[in-house]
Amino acid sequence: MVEDDDIDILVFVLLKGKQRRKNLTDMATLLTRSYYHSPCRATPFLGRSLGQQFYVTADKYPDKEMYVFYADKERKTFQQVRVESQQLAASFLSLGLNTGDRLGVWGGNHYEWLVTYVACMQLGIILIHIRLDFTGTMQTKLLQKTGCKALVLTRSPDNVYDSVCEIIPELRSCKADKLKCESLPELLFVAIGGEQHRGKRGVYNLDDLIHQGRSSAYKDKVTKICDRIDFDAPAAINFTSGSTGTPKAVTHSSHSILDFVHENGNIYRGNVQGYVQTWETKYALIMHMSGISGQVGAVIPIANGNTVVVVGPNYDKDLMAMAFHEEKVTNSVMLIHHMYDLLHLPYLDSLDFSHNQLSKYPRTQIVSGGTIIPPSLREKSKKICNMSLMVYGLTEMIGVLLHHPMDDPKRIQSGDYLCIGGCEAKIVNEKGEIVPVNTAGEIHFRGYGIFLYYWGDEEKTKQAKDDNGWLHTGDIAIMDEEGYIRIVGRKTDSMIIEGINVFPFDLEDVLLEHPSIAGVMVSSFLTPRYVLFMETFPTTDTGKFHRKKMAEIALNKLKLTSSSLQR
């Protein structure tokens, strides 16, 4: 909840930022080189670890709902999460976990995932977000790489226990406290949530661990440990999709996660026709928590004190629609196909979004990453929201570019971004030299949201992040005279047509102007010599369009090889 004084201060800062850009134009000091620093943050850095900030927010709003699990029909206040996460943390200590150890979570979006995450925050245990789409072999390899010491399984999917037994066969023949895993020698224990899994061999029941922590001798140690955690210490590991090779273990600190979420939430509390974030603001968490977007959604209550509605264990368009309707969701992060699904439900007109029209409520925003929102879809979205914005980010750098709510609507529609406050961007050529404005090149970023390193991979870390702290994204972009940035494609996706570099974005942007097109994906193997009409696109586990799989599907449908397409 934002106090009146906070709103006054914030509005002043945002207006000052807007005036600063206007003054640049008036003073004829527009950029000539593709370098931009965004110095104006809506709020100062918090200077706390995730666990420390959780205590602050829980003290402020003990009786407010922190998480609502719509599909599971569970509701948890900040105080309930505080008590249960502290008890779980005490049990983790009793089982041999300590600050800096790694604990993995695997399964659907349930309370087990979040209470485990909050418990780990308080102890400085690094949470490993394990993707559901990885094979057992890949999961074993990544758990070995990160030195995983404990594993928590959620209540779904139903076969989660059998799946983990494929990589840890010792579970079926041992007691929970006697686990010795040959392939994962550092693993101390496995715990599982849900009554349906109670009594399974080799695993602790997570509810039992929460209950046992109530009387644990370690309970008083939890807050003392939390107080001394450094906000720059590693806090979470997310894996890249692995579409270009072995997934990389991207390691983030509390600072990079927490201060992005806090800044992002406060930016949208600005002076936008009465847009004020209040007690009633609710966010819908649609993305899976194994991805960086889902993790960011999970941290929103901790950073900003808002309620998050976890729609379901996995993406379901009907659950999403009913959660928006019944829980009066006002804000959400979704991808293009989520938005398309919601707006094309046959019963959409029967759902109630009238609460968004009341001036005392915040104006609903839908932040969609991955591609430009088609004009027809943006217009249709006015049925359910008053603001649809875009964010650009990477697993390695959270939400670094965004549409500001005070930007010109034409800027927003064109996909022109500005850096989030406190970050720098530059566009360079193949020699690493900053290029003139309005010139395409690889975009690099520097700022607080950048990852620490790839766990266990110093060489790849150095390839991605140079000695000066710049993240080399591999994305091609153009910066204009005012510092606005447009992403035009990946270096690896560029096509040379008659000697001219063409990026998929160039073609996608034009095609999206057609009102009948909901989404477009140009593969680097396919220029518009061929057009395929699809009912759906393949997506990654985090919901983004999967270009590599789409290219394979297209080649199979057309009975072509990549070599036959070369001109």
Helix content: 25-40%
CA radius of gyration: 24 Å
CATH homologous superfamily placement of the largest domain? ANL, N-terminal domain
- Assembly type: single chain
Q: Tally the beta strands.
A: 24
**What are the segments in which pLDDT stays under 50 over at least 5 consecutive residues?**
1-28, 270-276, 357-363, 495-500
Terminal-residue CA separation: 59 Å
The total count of helices amounts to 17
Corresponding CATH architecture of the largest domain: 3-Layer(aba) Sandwich
CATH topology of the largest domain: Rossmann fold
Strand content: 15-25%
**Alpha-beta content class:** alpha/beta
In the sheet with the most strands, the strands line up as 3-2-12-11-13-14-15-16-17
Q: What would you call the shape?
A: globular
How would you sum up the major sheet?
Answer: 9 strands, mixed
The CATH top-level class label of the largest domain: Alpha Beta
Rounded mean pLDDT is: 83
Q: Provide the domain count.
A: 3
